[in-house]
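Recall the central idea of this unit: under ordinary conditions, the amino acid sequence of a chain determines the structure it adopts. In this exercise we apply that idea directly, starting from the sequence alone.
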Amino acid sequence: MVRSLKLPRVSVIIPARNEEKFIERCVKSFLACDYPGELIEVIVVDGMSEDGTRDIVNEISLRDNRVMLIDNEKKITPVAMNLGVKASKGEYIFFSGAHSEMPSDYISKCVQHAIESGADNVGGVVKTEPRVNSPVGRAIAEVLSHPIGVGGAKFRTGVTKPTEVDTAPFGCYKREVFDRIGYFNEQLVRNQDIELNLRLKRAGGRIILYPDIQFNYYARSTYGDLWRNSFGNGYWVIAGSRFSNMPFSLRHIVPFLFVSFLLVFGLISIWVPFVRIPYLVVITLYISLLLIASLGISLRPGKSALLLPAFVGFIVLHIAYGLGSLKGLLQRIFANG
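Accordingly, the structure predicted from this sequence is:
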C-alpha cells in the first residue's frame, strides 16, 4: 500500500472493442486490487463492440458503481483514451489494454512510486503471456520479451532498478500532464502512447520504469496476427510523421533500415557481383543471431519445442515491422510528391 496520510483518487481507462474474452478479467483485476476501493474508478471506453463486451461491462457496472461504460463511436484508440481522460476524476490516470491483467498491488505500487519520485509517468514491466497455449503462441510470447525481438524496449525485456525511459506501457500519469502537453494525437491510429510520451520527455517530463511493477499481457498467438500487428505498428511509426513531429525514437526504425538493406542490396547484387558476398555475410550473421536467440529460448525448462517457432517468430516480427515502415515512407514520399 502507498505510505501516505491522504491517498489520491485514481482513474483507470480501458479502451476496448470486441473483447468479450478478456474484458471481465481485466476490469475485475483493478476492482479487486489492494488500493482503497472508494478511490478507484474504472472507465471502459468501448468502440461500439459487436460481441458481448458491452453487456459484460454493463452487468459489472450494475453491481459496482465504480465502473463506467463510455461509447467511442469513432472506434479509434486515441479517441477512446481522450474520452476516458476527459470523463475521469482521478488525480492519477492509468491506462490498460483489455488484454492485460493487473496484480493486486499494481495501482498501489504505481501511486507510491509516482508520489515518491515526482515522475510524470511511471510504469512497469510487461510479462507477456500467450493467448493460446500452443508452441507458436508460446514462442511469440518469448520473442516479444527478447532483446533480439524488441530491441531496447525495456518495459518488455525488464529492468533491475528504477530506470528513466522514453516510454512506458499504459502508464500511471499525473493528471496535470494532459493540461500541460495536451491529449493523445487522435490522428495516430497506432503508437499514440509512444508519441505522447516522447512529447512529454521533450517538454522536460520524467518517465520511470520500476522493476517491482509487473503485469500480464496476452500476446497474439498466430504468425498471421503477429504479422498484421507488427506491420501496422511499423507503418504508423513512419506514417505518423504526417501528424506529429518525430513520433518515434531511433530504435523504432531499425527494422525499416534492415528491410531496406535487404531489398536494395539484394537488387544491386544481381548486377554487381562483388556486392553479393558482403550481402550474404550480413544475412548469414542475421540468421545465426536468430538461431542463437531461438536456441537460448528452447533450452529453458519446458520450452524445448520452441526452437523453430521462435526462429520464425523473430523473422515475422522484424520483416513485417520493417515492411510496414517502408510502406509508410513510400506513402509519405508520393503524398508529398
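The longest helix spans residues 307-336.
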